[in-house]
Structures
1.
Amino acid sequence: MKNNRLIWYIVAFVVIVLIQVGIMNNLQFSGLVNPYFYILFILLLPVNIPHYLLLLLGFALGISIDIFTNTPGIHASATVFASFIRPFLFNSYNFDEKEKVLVPTLHNIGFKSFVRYALLMIIIHHFFLFFIEVFSFSGFLYTLIRAVLSSIFTFVVVLISQFLIFRK
């Protein structure tokens, strides 16, 4: 059973990176909306994953995107930051014990909990990503708008993926 789950995560990692660099990176609307679907991998890791492994996987995911997009560590820093915040986010939600051992999918934790969790993680990731990308507060409003619109679009794509992949 554990080997099947490990294989599933390896395949998911590769597929998500390929979707991001092959499709999502080519979807840009007016330079304001850039979907960063790859955050889905961090979202779907088990709740009880050791923190060091979560950080390492976040780094591996981000650096993979950085290699394909020729961005010097921007995505790696954003995914590591999101991975760092994730356990604190789960602790603040007070999930019951049954939910703590599960993979946090829409089906497993319910629509309301998934929306709160995924949307907050996506917003945290995107705000960090966009502000580290410009590394300045000049053009703050433009960067804020980009982060908000990209977060919304990414959330919609993540939500659609939940209905397509994890349906009952």
Note: The chain has one domain: 2-85+94-165.
2.
Amino acid sequence: MTNPFAAEVAALLARPAPLAHRRARVLFYGSSTFTLWHDMASHFPDFAVINHGFGGSTLADCLAHFDQLVAPVRPCALVVYAGDNDLEQGVSPEQVLALVRTMVGRKRDALGDTPMAYVSIKVSPARLHFMHRIGYTNRIIEGALAGEADVRFVDTTRRMVGRGMAAWQRCYGDDPLHMNETGYRIWGRTLSEYLARAISGAAPPG
């Protein structure tokens, strides 16, 4: 079977890694929400950011490329965003949860107790028609990850929708699926708080 992501994955593998110096390496891994976060590094000046998002990917796709795009990087923290494409393709919330659990297991096998964040599935204007399924999926994943020492559910979605419809709409522009600078600013603040707690002061791996 043809791999629709082969060229994109090859391009990511060919991209030179940022020089960590004394900053901890943080790997962002997932779908196009990360791929299109073009100024990602500017939101996390204290870390050496590596963006391995590839467009249109599902959690299953992320698992398929884990050994290529995650394990060799040996990051000090892993941040994962995927799941809305899965739901769009008919995967059930329970199946999404099972895929997240598998991702956590793969992380532990490859990276041990390295901190991992699973970022909540966002509600976008393009996918408003199944926002309740998104909400339910987020709830069961948050519940499943509660109490885990090395994995956190990071809820960016409540921060986006909890400010009211007008504020939520300002997170999107002409593209009804992907966020604009306003949305990414919320994600940057939320994930910065997580990373500060998870790996503040951590040295780059040798």
Note: Residues 201-206 have pLDDT under 50 and may be disordered.
